[in-house]
Design goal:
This protein is an alpha/beta fold and 343 residues long. Helix content is 42%, strand content 18%. It is built from eleven helices and 16 strands. The strands form four sheets. It has a seven-stranded mixed beta sheet, sandwiched between helices. α2 runs antiparallel to α5. The structure holds 5-S-methyl-1-O-phosphono-5-thio-D-ribulose. The site of 5-S-methyl-1-O-phosphono-5-thio-D-ribulose has 18 residues, from α2 and β9. Residues 106-133 form a coiled coil.
Length: 343
């Protein structure tokens, strides 16, 4: 399963606002179309928005050549527009910075566009390879017949392919383990109920959707063996920003003595931020909370707060699974080692 494709100078995005009811591909030919798709969450998930943004830069360069404008200026404009779409997932900025570095040495003209295109394709290919490695490391932590709780969507739809936390679940299954997945519905965008459930059904993996507020009750019953989630940004001390609700799950898991794992590629690590307090947290339109599937269910005059992410302190994390290996507590030391170039 793939949510992104590059075909003949067009970025194809499987519109995740329509899934699972409709599989509709959006064809993006301009930077603005890619930026809009990221903002509206037609494409979402930290690695996937990084890949989309990389191709957005290529589109900006392509248009510049067609219009006889300088690529260097067009890349600067594209990067500025795409960087302003969503603030939390660092993969977006990581991918844009890769593209900027290539643009600095690529020069002008069609050959420069081709170099940018090759770089964006590399960002996409590498993400799939990295996710498969995360899956192999992570599968070692999944016991036979595990009942796994996950939040949001961290699968093929959130990445170039395969997924991070959901990739670990896929890998465990590929290794012959029977697993059962508790799928948090993940209000208000329903990434769990709509997208993770969709991927699990396609893979034939047993999944059960629960409301977000059910998770702690299942832990108390002894029905959850481990929790695994993805990440949008990991600070230098191992604090993790991820979909709103993750922090509550980590607290509940620790209270019940249940392992809490985070799976993320090294492109999600941000060594420039000392701890999670410095991670910018996206605040989205309150209408997304006041409405369900476009239908308002709150009374006129009611207001809402929509924080899209929260931060889980490293002290609640039992393992951070990366493509380079599994980081164990003390997490700050392990993350420092990783950022210095080891595992
Ligand atoms: C591999 S995806 C990791 C995270 O990006 C994921 O858990 C998440 O929080 C996605 O949020 P979203 O708002 O759907 O982009």
């Amino acid at each position: 399963m793939r949510a992104l494709g590059w075909n003949d100078g067009e970025l194809l995005i499987l519109d995740q606002t329509r899934l699972p009811l409709e599989e509709r591909w959006v064809h993006c030919r301009t930077v603005e179309e890619v930026a809009e798709a990221i903002e509206r969450m037609r494409v979402r998930g930290a690695p996937a928005i990084g890949v989309a943004a990389a191709f957005g830069v290529v589109l900006g360069a392509q248009r510049a050549v067609e219009q006889g404008r300088r690529i260097s200026a067009a890349v600067r404009e594209a990067v500025a527009r795409l960087a302003a779409t969503r603030p939390t997932a660092v993969n977006l900025f990581w991918a844009l910075s890769r593209m900027e570095k290539v643009a600095e040495v690529a020069g002008e003209g069609r050959e420069a566009v081709a170099r940018l295109e090759r770089e964006a394709e590399a960002v996409m290919r590498e993400d799939e390879r990295v996710n498969r490695r995360i899956g192999r490391w992570g599968a070692e932590l999944i016991p036979q017949r595990a009942r796994i709780l996950t939040h949001c969507n961290t699968g093929a739809l959130a990445t170039a392919a395969y997924g991070t936390a959901l990739g670990v679940i896929r890998a465990a299954r590929e290794e012959g383990k029977e697993v059962q997945v508790w799928v948090d519905e993940t209000r208000p965008f329903f990434q769990g109920a709509r997208l993770t459930a969709y991927e699990l059904v396609q893979e034939g993996i047993e999944g059960t959707i629960i409301t977000d507020s059910t998770a702690a009750a299942l832990m108390a019953k002894g029905w959850v063996d481990l929790v695994i989630v993805g990440a949008d940004r990991v600070a230098a001390n191992g604090d993790v920003a991820n979909k709103i609700g993750t922090y509550g799950l980590a607290i509940a898991a620790r209270y019940h003595g249940i392992p809490f794992y985070v799976a993320a590629p090294t492109s999600t690590f941000d060594g420039s931020l000392a701890d999670g307090r410095a991670i910018p947290i996206e605040e989205r339109n309150p209408d997304e909370v006041l409405q369900v599937a476009g239908v308002r269910m709150a009374p006129p005059g009611a207001s809402a707060l929509h924080l899209a992410f929260d931060v889980t302190p490293h002290s609640l994390i039992d393992a951070l699974i990366t493509e380079k290996g599994v980081l164990r507590p003390p997490i700050p030391d392990a993350v420092q080692g990783l950022l210095r170039g080891g595992t």
